[in-house]
């Protein structure tokens, strides 16, 4: 079959197939497309979450004996360890595929090495095709594997003059319905929502991910409260809508270590200005999603507490990645230029 452009097209299909997998699952989203020497699609598959067949296994099962002599396009290097399923590297070799092309090398030390092993079996292996797209697909999972901590997105809702609440403490609602619904869609794609005890006690949030009709998404993120103070026994965050844990610590590092142990790779930080400042000061915010309302208060609670910055030269500079109008509000997505 022809290489070059054709390879890229098949990898794009594998990436699209991979996106069918759940974003908040402990495992990465992976897609596999099997193509015969004539350039015809034979089968495709994706990983549908922990405990289900890996993408390669799903595609190979659909292909059957037709996989022999084919090329397998995979968005992540085939695993080479035995977990709940057999190694995908061995399954590919046993199927008789002649060539394996993958986008991103697996940084998981317990599962990586599948590409090298396949090459040792005489199978042609090529890596790095559309690597940037593969990195984007599993950004937070790859971050956890490489750094040992989850990717943290800090969500803030602010007036145009940087206030998260009025002088009397009221904050519902700064932004409009389209922005608030957008928050729920983001929540549904994360493994955990995190607030401090102050937010839990003052705002009494439910911290669930809801659809536009008010019903709950089928899968709910873990609700996490950090801080020393006790929660009210009738707090909405303690209802049965989703699991909640209370971590009695003020240390962002300890919280993220606990969540990493639970294989959570994306944390949606909705804490107030104190918690936000603590994460920012420790270098644990990787991305900011800011909903800015065309509202002026003049007084009130700031979006973030003191960061210890006294001069403009020390300001934390952000790199905008997306700007969108949602009703009357503006959503700005930005990453820190140097995230740990």
Shape: elongated
Q: Write out the strand line-up for the largest beta sheet, numbering strands in chain order.
A: 10-9-8-11-6-12-15-14
Mean pLDDT: 92
Regions with little confidence, pLDDT below 50 for 5+ residues: none
DSSP helical segment count: 10
Structural class, please? alpha/beta
Terminus-to-terminus distance = 42 Å
- Biggest sheet, in brief? 8 strands, mixed
Task: State which percent range the strand residues make up.
Answer: 15-25%
Gyration radius (Cα, Å) is 23 Å
Order of helices and strands: HEEHEHEHEHHEEHEHEEHEHEEEE
Helix fraction bin: 25-40%
Let me know the number of strands.
15
Describe the protein in words.
27% of the residues lie in helices and 24% in strands. With 340 residues, the chain is α/β, with parallel strands linked by helices. The strands form 3 sheets. The protein has an 8-stranded mixed beta sheet. Strand 3 (71-76), helix 3 (88-95) and strand 4 (99-104) form a beta-alpha-beta unit. The longest helix has 14 residues, at 5-18. The chain is elongated.
